[in-house]
Write a structure and sequence with these properties.
heterodimer, A: 285 residues, alpha/beta, 5-stranded parallel β-sheet, B: 393 residues, two-stranded antiparallel sheet, 18 helices, 9 strands, 50% helix, 9% strand, flat
Amino acid sequence: MQDSRFDGTDRYVVTRDLTMAVNAAVTLGRPLLVKGEPGTGKTMLAIEVARALQKPLIEWHVKSTTRAQQGLYEYDAVARLRDSQLGDPKVHDIANYIVRGKLWEAFASDIRPVLLIDEIDKADIEFPNDLLLELDRMEFFVYETRKTVRATTRPIVIITSNNEKELPDAFLRRCFFHYIRFPDADNMRKIVDVHYPGIKQRLLDRALRLFFDLREMPGLKKKPSTSEFLDWIKLLLAEDIPPEALHSEDHKTSVPPLYGALLKNEQDVDLLEQLLFLDRQRDRS
Amino acid sequence: MLIDFFFKLREASIPASITEYLSLLEAMDRGIGDLGVDDFYYLARTSLVKDERHFDRFDQIFGSYFKGREILFDRISPEVPMEWLRKLAERHLSEEEKAQISALGGWEKLMETLRRRLQEQRDRHQGGSKWIGTAGTSPFGAYGYNPEGIRIGQDGSRHRRAVKVWDRRFYRNFDDHLDLDNRSFKVALRRLRKFARECGTIEELDLDGTIHHTARNAGLLDVRMVPERRNAVKVLLFLDTGGSMSDHIKICEELFSAACGEFRHLEYFYFHNCIYESLWRDNDRRHTERTPFAEILRTYTADYKIIFVGDATMSPYEIVYPGGSVEHWNEEAGAIWMQRLLTHYPKAIWLNPEPKRRWPTTPSIDIIRKLMDNRMYPLTPAGIDAGVRELLR
């Protein structure tokens, strides 16, 4: 089955290396593991791939308590116990109590779906190992009903990780890997363009310069990311801040407007204010 | 030829496997990308390298291996670089110069020479990020343009851009021999926590499991027990302070704060250069409040895991001779105290902030390393990782 190529969308700017990685994963039917700084659009990637290739999207958000089995299926024994007490005839067929997980859903889909396994590193360290065979062969065995569930078409699997845990080698070997690098000024401009077409160039220029200056600031606890930058631009547009307010010389002397969208940590705000204060002192002397 | 490349990667300890190599071949076979050097680079990276910390090393290997071999890719699509060169030159040459060029054998010949020249230049600037040197001598000087001004590395061409991508080495700061923030320490130390959870000894009632299994068991009570999940690992941290350690304060602070966040049972003591008969917990009051060595052995049981942090850089006398300490008169040599400690606590490692390559040339590091039975690791995420593995063995 030949799927059309993914080449970014009107809302999502991709670099050439990301395109290659996605297309390799789509064509070969192997999972794609995406890492990168928070807020560089890892989760968005899956959503946009599904949109561009016109596939249904199945999202599985992983938490610290998520177990691999939950992605396959769960046997709701408690419901069955309750039903048996009530004399429900359903109780004789165990299949009535098998609850499908996201992976099963993806395997059962008629159209080849995009399956997003979001933040796989949040789960227990053994979690990826428990999915090895399932993601490799795209099938699993249901013990309760003694049936094998096999994928009709290999879903496009996109896995994101924030690097909180090392993933096992055996798991990595089966994936394609991409690291979303933080965009440079040019790419950032493109990204803003697709989100806010027709934004005043002068405003964007200044905002970008301010933003990258801020990221360069030493000692920041949390560097502002793409998504935070986009939020900030949105706010600037909503408040109709004139480009002059972001004047690059000016920002040395005052905190940038609506900085709350960029800095999420009071220590960082303190730091910024201190640096600006020092700058002012230096300018005066 | 690709097999060679694959083994080069493995030599550089990038853990690429045969499966991954085969999937790269499969991807090429299925025609993903246009088979230019650019796409090949991305494809190779996405299928062979699974850790951004290895990107830098991959770029270096790729750069050195395919240096001078881009021509292999050019054969697949020979027109494009020609086009590009033409475009490039057109932009920089005046009408008059162009006329001169056609007199000299035409575009084709000139471009061929230019291409060869670029090749040579790149070879000479091995490892640098600006592969057209700033002081480049150009054979085209007669035509009045200077490679310095062309800035070939920044041209928009697809074929040369690839060279730039790995020559620029974007991923340098991710290499685990350099990256040093607190978070990566935490991730490295977390391995020790995982172990603790598995080894928790106290059992408690697993309520969910009991209900589940009772239900499965058609209502007959089936009690389940699970080990309590808690971090039972106990860590005793010995930190070298003062003197040559001043250079490493920041990194030690980061390690210390990461360790404080990760372990509930964490105790720490400071020492200077080597362990002697007493240590201290507060650097300001080090001369008044010291903990005798024997008290440490009494207080902390042998299941504590010991992590020394120090550069082990001192005069060898400070380790092997009585009275060698720079601060006080020690009756017994540091080595003897070290040995006592290591006999009492079998699980111990030494983390050294000095770069590993300097270890063999510093005699005191060598002595400490022998005392530690080689359990000395660099103070980097990779080193901590290896050290923690050793502690868990």
